[in-house]
Amino acid sequence: MQINASRLAEHFQTLAKIGQIGETGVCRPALSPVEKEAFRAAKQWMEEAGMQVRIDHFGNLIGRLEGKNPEAPVLMIGSHLDSQPYGGRFDGVAGVLGGIEAVATLHEAGIVPERPIEVVSFCDEEGWRFNKGLFGSRGILDRLEEGELQRADKDGITREQALREFGCDPDRFSESIYPPGSIHAYLELHIEQGPILDKQAQPVGIVTGISGPLWLTVTLKGFAGHAGSVPMPLRQDALVGAAEVILALNRIVQQEQGSPAVGTVGNLRVFPDSRNIIPEEVVFTIDLRDIDLDRRKRYEQQLLEVMESVAEQHRLTLEIREDTNSEPRYCADWIKEIMREESRQMGLTPPELMSGPFHDALALSYACDYGMIFIRCRDGISHNPAEYSSDEDLALGTELLYRTVLGMAGGA
Fold it and tell me: Is the pLDDT score of 412 beyond 60?
């Protein structure tokens, strides 16, 4: 093994303490003082690996190792350091620390790559604080949407305010955009966040593509009334309507046996939120994903018909906002072939599998070829403090990343 596995493990241990909740959990909101503290640690390690480091105006931490040809399109390696509110120590972190370790190994070996290499911790991949993710990776590609800066978190802080408090200037976004053709390819190392590698007793896997996510925010509005005096047939109960939609989503995504389609309602807000008032308004999120875009569109149409029927039956108004809509994106064959060959050299036989979760790679896939490596996580648990990958598996994944970088960027 050419990477420094003990150094990599120490870096994981250090970051796990930044934003730590409980014994093993982490909460690092995007654009928060806690994430800034994590950036300071990662910045130091990037500099020790020979990189020049900056934070751009989208809130991305970027370390750059110069190549023999500084004008050549960059090989980008990345992931994120923000976490879920009740998250684990490895989601996103593996890709950033693995990228830093890969570059550190190049630097210590005196290898100068043919093209520049950049390691990026992208801003707000998770999306829970402002209810829309992949902000930094979409930002550098000029793919932000109208109104994103006005999105507010639960405390009323807008994304624009958070960016400015973080030291960024949204008025200077254009300075941080990568021109078309300036990114050669993108690599991302990530824990699997699913059970396939664990069940097959394989430490790493090669990703073949990312399922397309559809995110919706649904508002059902009825009429509040006293819980003790309004007869059941006369009620306009928004929560009853929402419950029927949630159950319908669960049925729809399971109608074809063996389908990888998944549907989730992960957030629900009830107004006026009193035990003896009929709920007048319910706002909830829908997360629908599938690797088959036609099937996902079919399920979306079925769900829409259910929502319209429920709203009519309970005399509710229905409002649907689309937050994210992406088609499935597939990894580049030439990058997968490098990974296969390097895996053989390491004595590994990694399975090839799709990614249900989306990653910053999804955004980058619209600008360049991309590849991903998965690392086994115990029992497939993620977005949970119980999330766990062993030091040995993290080192193997990082070693494969390093060898893939060497195969893609060259140098001597």
Answer: no
Distances (CA, A) of 75 to 10, 65, 107, 113, 293: 26, 10, 15, 10, 29
State the pLDDT at residue 358.
85
Cα(128)–Cα(107) distance, integer angstroms? 36
Would you state the structure tokens that stand for residue 40, as one six-digit string?
A: 């300071």
Residue range of the domain that includes 259: 212-325
Residue 238, by phi and psi: left (phi above 0), alpha (psi -120 to 50) or beta? alpha
Domain-terminating residue out of 295, 325, 355: 325
Q: Residues 353, 354, 360, 363: what is their CA dihedral angle, to the nearest 10 degrees? A: 130
- Domain co-membership, 321 together with 363: no
- Cβ(388)–Cβ(88) under 8 Å? yes
Instruction: Please tell me whether residues 129 and 75 are part of one structural domain.
Output: yes
Of the candidates 215, 225, 223, the one whose C-alpha atom is nearest the C-alpha of residue 284 is 215
Cα–Cα distance for residue pair 373/197, rounded to 1 Å? 12
Residues 146 and 118 in one domain: yes
pLDDT band at 200 (very low <50, low <70, confident <90, very high): very high
Q: What's the whole-model pTM score?
A: 0.84
| Count of C-beta atoms within a 10 Å radius of residue 35 | 24
**CATH at 95:** 3.40.630.10
Measured distance CA(74)–CA(69) in Å, rounded: 10
Q: Do 221 and 203 belong together in one domain?
A: no
Predicted pLDDT at 95: 98
- The domain total for the chain is 2
Q: What is the CATH number of the domain that holds 289?
A: 3.30.70.360
402-412: b (≥16 Cβ within 10 Å) or e? bbbbbebbebe
Question: What's the chain's length in residues?
Answer: 412
**234 and 365 housed in the same domain:** no
Residue-level pLDDT at 291: 85
- pLDDT for the residue numbered 60: 98
Among 325, 352, 386, the domain boundary falls at 325
231/228 Cα distance (integer angstroms): 8
